[in-house]
Structure formats: C-alpha cells, structure tokens
Amino acid sequence: MYILAIDQGTTSSRAIAFDQAGNIVHIAQKEFKQYFPQPGWVEHDANEIWTSVGSVIGELLSKLTAKKIAAIGITNQRETTLLWDKNTGEPIYHAIVWQSRQTVSICEEWKQKGYSDAVRQRTGLLIDAYFSASKIRWILTNVPGAKAKAENGELLFGTIDTWLVWKMTRGKAHVTDYTNASRTMLYNIHTLQWDKELLSLFGIPESILPEVRSCSEVYGYTTAAFGGEEVPIAGIAGDQQAALFGQACFEAGMAKNTYGTGCFMLMNTGAKAVSSQNGLLTTIAWGIGGKTEYALEGSIFVAGSAIQWLRDGLRILQKSSDSEKQAYSLASNDGVYVVPAFVGLGTPYWDSDTRGAIFGLTRGTQREHLVRATLEAIAYQTKDVLNAMQQDSGIELKNLRVDGGAVANNFLMQFQSDLLGVPVVRPVVNETTALGAAYLAGLATGYWKDRNEIAQRWQAQNTFTPQMPIAETTKLYKGWQKAVEAARLFK
Ligand code: G3P
C-alpha cells in the first residue's frame, strides 16, 4: 500500500507515490500551459490543470506494481483563484495565478479606503494582489453576469486544492483547509472563520466560499482512475506549509526555505501567531486534531523562474542545471547584480511596481556573469527574508532546511550558507512538499502513527557550512541592497 501525493504547482502537476518508509516509489510529472494575456498577468486554464492531474495519476498507477493506494494527500500552488458554475462545473474565467498583477489597482483602492489594519490584524496578511480576495473581486466585476450569479448562489470559489477535491469527489465536497484559507485575505486566522466584515468590505458573498477543514482528515472519496475502488482524500495543505511539514519543522523556531517558481521561507512559531514589523506574513502552518499552529513567512515571487528566464527568455542556458557550472567558472560576480523583480517585489519590500534590473555591466561582462548574478540574487533575497524573520521572532536560526528544484545547485547552496552565516541543510528526500501532503493523509488514515515517527525519519543528505570571510559577504550584500534601491527608483 502506498500514499499518493498530488502536488499541483505553478508550472506542473505531479503525482508521487510514497511507501511506509517515506521513500519515493515513483513520480509522474506534467507541465501545463501558462497564459500571459497582458504584461504582468498570469493565468491558468483550470480544466487543463484537472486534465494534467488525471494524466499524472494515470501514469503513476500504470508504473506501480502494487496498485493499492491507502489515501491521497493534496498540496497546491496557493492563492491562485478560480470561480466555477456550481451546476455545470465549468470555470467562468481562467484561474488567476498568485503571481498575477492584474488586481493591483483594486488593492490600491482598498489601501486608500483604510482597510490595511483590519486585514493585517485578522488575516495576518497585507493588502496585495498576491492573495485571493482581489482576484475574486476582479472576476466578479469583469466577467459578465458573474456578480448576479454569485449572489444567486450559483458560483463556487476555490483555490486549486478546492477545485481538485470538488472534481475528484464529483462535486460532493466543496472544502479547503486552514492553510489555503489563510492565503485568501478573507479568513480570520485567530477565530478560524471566514471574516464577515472583510467579505462585506470587499463585496464578496459568503455563499461562494468552501467549508474550511483541518489539514489531516477524510474530506471525501474518489474513484476516478482507481478502477472503481473508493480511495479517501485525507490531507490538504498549501505547498509551502506542506513543505514545512515534510521537512519535519515541528518545533517553534525551526524554518525551511523552498526554492520553486518563487522562494518561500516559513518559520514555525508554534501556537502563537507572531505579528510582523518587517514585512513578513503571519500564516497558519497547519491545523490538525483541533490544534492550530502558526508560521511567519517570507515570500519571494521570483526564484526558479529567474533561471527559466535565463534559459527560455535570454537563451543563455541550455538546461537550468548548466547554471551551476557557469557560476563556478567565475571567481566572483565582478560587481554584476541582477534584481529579478519581474512581478514586483514581495517580502520585505511589497512593491508591486518595481521591475527587474541589471547593474554593474562592463565591457568584460559575459553571460556567465548574468547566470551567477541571477543565482546570487536568489540567495540575497533569502537573506533579506531571514533578516526580517530573525528580527520579528527574536530567534537566531541554527540552520536552514532547504528543498525544491534549485537546491540541487551546489553553487547556490554554498553561497546561501556563506551569505546567511548558518548551515544550509539539504534532506535526503527533496520532494518535501509532496511528502508533507502524504504525511498529512497518512496520519489521518493510520498509515503513519504520529509526528515523532515522521521527525525521526527526516535525514540530512548534505550540509553546506559558511566558508566565505564575513567581510566579503558583507560587501556583496551591501552591493545587492544598493542594486535593489536603485531598481526601485526606476518606475
Ligand atoms: O504562494 C505561491 C506558492 O504556493 C507557489 O509555490 O512551488 O509553485 O513556487 P511554487
């Protein structure tokens, strides 16, 4: 018997089977189309997402020798917003992706109306186009007939977890979990309820919202692709919270950083929702068995997607993995800095209008410099976040657990450790997001006993320790700060 994790990410859908030892038995992955209808807008077709999920599940099952699946855990790109017709099951508009900036003006209006404090106190977030609320508002305003349909109770809203569970249960369950709800900017993370006052300020009818459930329980059953057999869907968490769980960061003060499309650092703060003074988000880490735990989060919008830009946009890399060799081919960055603010800047700046910039070019600048500077930028942004996190939590980080595609890059990991001045630890199982979702589903169904069992299983594969002299990292980081400052002047 295996646990099946579905990891529905920003650029691809994956299905991963885990065995009782928490090892990966098999992975199937499928990319799907990204839509960029206007500069700064990013959208997905929710039916294409559903098809991609069906196809990776089918592929995975065809490769497994033991077909039996004990339970399914779902983890997903967070905030991405979808509205669909309750009766036909058809989306009324594309899913608006978390990165999309098409709702900046709605957010500006809400800020001007003075809603920022209420949002901060109740949801732990700040008003930004990143979160779901303004995306829902945009669809209700811009899709003809949507507002009336929503008011008549004919529309359903969901983040991608909700959409998948609804599809998998053939419309029986319209649910989400605490972690995904906490990213909508509509959910009170202290009372654990949809916030009626915010809903009314934003003009969003409560009838479209899913029921919010814990991260580890049976939400419904699916037979889709399982030959008629009913398999319980028993775990849901947003991908960053799932990674925190998969990294076994169960104690307050433990943190992980995931290098995916973006880069997200979460620190477990236990039962306390710590409010940030430095541009971090307060968010729900998970709610399990009646207990809620919180996290501080730093959100970097562009990380892995900057390497994709080198490959697909500038075409100076053939494969993303070539970036490691190119970066190592130089002795230093020679003063070149890339600020990859392609969709604005998240933590700690929260600046929607800044765009990407390159500084320090000379006649001697080669493509290797751009590659190295882009990798370094991921590490600098992480340092910005860690600084904010240590100030807010008062906790000195002992080490940073890392995961996601880019952690295979040894140059990046070593530079990250140099810059942060703490060990950076890469685990044996790098697929921690999917693993976290699998653990949540397995705990609900008795496949795994408890968190202790999970924590004991976590193992480091490689630890990068700081090597660079502090004077040098200080100088490099100052250069980054100057570059960001300069990029922000150009709007
Ligand atoms: O908040 C957005 C995040 O959930 C997306 O994650 O892995 O697709 O970069 P990822």
Oligomer: single chain
CA radius of gyration is 22 Å
Number of helices: 16
Which stretches are poorly predicted, pLDDT < 50 over at least 5 residues?
none
**Proportion of residues in helical segments:** 25-40%
Number of strands: 23
The main β sheet shows up as: 7 strands, mixed
**Structural class label:** alpha+beta
Average pLDDT works out at 94
Apparent shape: globular
Major beta sheet, strand line-up: 17-18-16-15-21-22-23
What binds here, in terms of ligands, is: SN-glycerol-3-phosphate
* End-to-end gap: 55 Å
Strand residue content:
15-25%
What are its keywords?
single chain, 491 residues, alpha+beta, seven-stranded mixed sheet, six-stranded mixed sheet, 16 helices, 23 strands, binds SN-glycerol-3-phosphate
Note down, in words, how this protein is organized.
- There is one protein chain.
- By secondary structure, this protein is α+β, with helices and mostly antiparallel strands.
- The protein is about 35% helix and about 25% strand.
- The protein contains 16 helices and 23 strands.
- A hairpin with a 2-residue loop joins β17 and β18 (about 290-300).
- α11 (about 320-330) crosses α12.
- The longest helix has 27 residues, at about 365-395.
- The radius of gyration is 22 Å and the shape is globular.
- The mean pLDDT is about 95.
- SN-glycerol-3-phosphate (G3P) binds near residues 77, 98 and 240.
- SN-glycerol-3-phosphate binds near residues 9, 79 and 238.
- Keywords: ATP-binding, Glycerol metabolism, Kinase, Nucleotide-binding, Transferase.
